[in-house]
Amino acid sequence: MSMQFSYIEKHGNPVEKARLAFLLKGTPPSREVVSELFADQCEDGGWPAKWSHNTSSLDATCFRLAQAEQLGLTTAAKQIQTALRFLVRRQSLDGSWDEESRIAQWTPSYLKPGKIESRLYLAANCGFWVAYFSGRDNSVPRAMGFLMRYLEESGCLPATPQANWMSAGLWLRMRRYEVAEKVITSCQGHMDDLPASSLAWMGVTLIIGRIRQKNPLIKRVAEKLLTMRQPGDYWECEDGKDRNCHTTIEAIRVLKFTKKL
Questions:
Q1: For all residues of the chain together, what is the average pLDDT?
Q2: Other CB atoms closer than 10 Å to residue 216's CB: what's the count?
Q3: Is the pTM here over 0.90, yes or no?
Q4: Neighbour tally for 2: CB within 10 Å
Q5: 3-state SS, residue 71
Q6: In sequence order, which residues have a C-beta less than 8 Å from that of residue 93 and are 6 or more positions away?
Q7: In this model, does residue 2 exceed pLDDT 60?
Q8: Which helix (H) or strand (E) holds 47?
């Protein structure tokens, strides 16, 4: 597939441009880009969300770690170390995570404290990023144990599609291939209704989890993304135009991985 990258060059911020440069050429980010990525980190090690009134959010912290991964950063960065400590400290005894109850009134529905759907999503998301950056931490098997308690015979978790593909990425990363394949198979049933941003997110999660390049699901994700490319070589994000560059970078990563770029 012939493709230009002018959309990101024109609309992307410095971090997004650096993410693309690392993806395509392996170019390490500048100190200025790293500083911008890690700006506004809270004293507890997390990052706030737009809705969290300057209180650290588990979900926002995972998103920042995801961007760090896309810049090739590791635990050599102190900001990542403190973010991981924040996540591990916030894990409950049963292996799950919850956003702060004191900000529950502003928390989006998919993150509401106390809801099993929210706890499953955060267990998959937080567990995945702790596993990626610090795979031997004791919080990872506890997260997997919590998820396993709710895994249905069909391979689905009673939660959002995002929780399902994040858990698949976690099990892949930890070499629990039988469980991962079961969840991956169930994820195929969610694909038809997913927007481009979710498809790209799913694909990138599975790539980081070390999915096989010839796996039928990752191939289907790439093929569907090809049909969703907009004129001007970008992919739309349902969360708003300011996330189009993020979605586009992730779509490019999936296409590059499956050799469709």
A1: 95
A2: 11
A3: yes
A4: 5
A5: coil
A6: none
A7: no
A8: strand 47-48
